Amino acid sequence: MPLSESARKQILTGAVDDATEVFLLSIGSESLFVRLWDLGLFRRINLACGTLIDDYESEWLEPEQIPLAAREVNKILQNHLNGEVGIFLQELSELMERAAGSQLPLLFEC
User: Fold this and answer.
1) What does pTM read for this prediction?
2) In whole angstroms, what is the distance from residue 73 CA to residue 90 CA?
3) Which of 2, 4, 8, 47 has its CA 20 to 30 A from that of 98?
4) What angle do CA 103, 23, 4 make, to 5 degrees?
5) Which residues sit opposite 2 in a β-bridge?
């Protein structure tokens, strides 16, 4: 998540460096990605938001899309509260809440 409009512009132009103000939530392993994929996380966000988030495409969620995506994350989180999946989904939910409150977009980067 860019933490400022200038950070967003840097990301859009590919001019990202160590000074770019972002908050990064990384999927820590291939196995976690596969588990999230199998749970339908990205499919559900895509359906709710009209996006194409997958392992080959980068996609922005604009501020008005974030509540829609957050609802889908929270639905999955209700059934997966523990373990690596639960921790990631909780962190993603918190990041989405922060982004929505700040009216900042989220970038899903492959």
Assistant:
1) 0.84
2) 8
3) 47
4) 45
5) 22
Sign of CA dihedral 19, 23, 27, 29: positive
- Would you list the domain boundaries of the chain? 5-108
Instruction: Report whether 62 contacts 103 (CB < 8 A).
Output: no
CB neighbourhood size of 26 (10 A)? 9
What are the pLDDT digits (tens) for 41-99?
A: 999 999 999 999 988 888 889 999 999 999 999 999 998 878 999 999 999 999 999 88
The tally of CA atoms less than 13 A away on the side-chain side of residue 45 is 28
Q: Considering Cα of 24, then 88, then 62, then 39, what sign does the dihedral take?
A: positive
DSSP H helices, 1-110, are: 5-13, 30-38, 41-49, 66-79, 83-102
* Enclosing H/E stretch for 107: strand 106-108
Q: What are 12's two structure tokens?
A: 């859009």
Q: Which of 3.40.1760, 3.30.2320, 2.40.440, 1.20.58 is the CATH number of 5-108?
A: 3.40.1760
